[in-house]
Amino acid sequence: MEQVFTWRKTPPIRWLTAAMIVAAQGFLIEGANAQARPDTRTMTCLEARTLVQSRGAAVLTTGQFTFERFVANGRYCVSNTQILQRAFAPTKDNASCTIGFVCQERPVNRR
Length: 111
Description:
The mean pLDDT is about 85. This protein has a domain at about 40-105. By secondary structure, it is α+β, with helices and mostly antiparallel strands. Helix content is about 30%, strand content about 25%. The termini are far apart. It is elongated and about 90 Å long.
């Protein structure tokens, strides 16, 4: 007698739901990884400064709920209306390490 293989009768909506859950978990994990940013508090002053210099610009965590975009020079500012301001952040070995610069809007002269 020939044996016939039959698929278990599972409603298509369950397959679709399971596939959507797996896909959503993948996106959430990838999103969390993409949002991770280096923390200055876990680096030495030299490591943090070198990171900014090598990338040109970097968004770094500076505290439990704070972050900042540091730049190596004015080429990394968004517009030519911005000026450089020396930036400091806490690092593993220095409470106020000069990491690089931040871009600030140029003050408006009102007469």
